[in-house]
Specification:
The protein is of the alpha/beta class. The protein has 2 domains: about 35-50 and about 105-150 and about 210-305, TPP-binding domain (Rossmann fold, 3-Layer(aba) Sandwich), CATH 3.40.50.1220; about 60-105 and about 150-205, SIR2/SIRT2 'Small Domain', CATH 3.30.1600. It has 10 helices and 9 strands. The chain has helices at about 5-35, 45-50, 60-75, 75-85, 90-105, 110-120, 170-175, 210-230, 250-260, 290-305; strands at about 35-40, 125-130, 145, 150-155, 165, 200-205, 235-240, 265, 280-285. Strands 3-2-1-7-8-9 form a 6-stranded parallel sheet, with helices on both faces. The chain is globular, with a radius of gyration of 22 Å. It binds zinc ion. Zinc ion (ZN) binds near residues 156 and 197. Zinc ion binds near residues 156, 160, 161, 194 and 197.
Length: about 300
Amino acid sequence: MLTGQNTVGYTEQKAAVNNIRFQNIKILVDKIANADAILVGAAAGMSAACGYNFFYQNDEIFEKYLGEFGRKYGYRGAFNGFYYRYPSPEAHWAFLARMGYMEYECETGKPYYDLMELIKDRNYHIMTTNQDFQFTRVVPDEKLSAIQGDSRYFQCSRRCHDEIYYNKEMIYAMNDTIDENLCIPSEMIPRCPKCGAEMEPWVRGYTFLEGKKYKDEYRKINEFLEENKEKKILFLELGVGRMTPMFIQEPFWNLTYSLPQAYYITINPKDAILPQALSGKGISIKEDIASVLRDAVILVRSETEEK
Ligand SMILES: [Zn+2]
């Protein structure tokens, strides 16, 4: 049973937490408003914030699209499905077709729209390790760099030539032919037009094609950095976990440390880390990304109304 004293203590604690939370969101909004340039780095936590947890868990969406695969082969989450060793190429491609179909059918989540409302009129660039192409529906191509690939494309699995192929029509056609054994017909398996090898999704892996499209993604980031590195530049990190810090998190830390006017904000419910060396040049917001972005939008709207 709660005593009166505990209740007061709890209320005070809650007020203090809310106060820190509000201050952090205020800093986020002010830094976005006052930055000359914003480089956003978004990873898996951003899509998880949309309620899409099918990558690592059997959530409702996984059940809807991939549930029968999960039950047949005994894995959880699309990640494990992707790396599962299927008994045949026909079974493997049935999974890839259904997973691709799921990604095309999943609408871009609200946190992406909230982020864009916050930065759309600013000088920004976005880099992402996400391969689920949610950003592509809300960000113009020249302002987006998908540095770990983009599952809307196939490449030759032998990397025999430097070309990637938009796959929506192939994915939908393959998905339509998945039979009761969860296989597609052999003749539906996409093959390289040059060498005849199987294609594969253009995403980070042992045979990931780092050709002209890949280099172009980094060219866009580097041009943005070159133009803005001496200015007030904000590095905004969203949902980067500790598994692959080398792609976004460590470069953001190093750049914030070395650039004179840089500032760093990381939002992540689990892994929001501010290195000691960056104290005074950044904050970490250890909270749900969706609710922080939503409240930042509400704050901006209320401040705009006051003016
Ligand atoms: Zn080939």
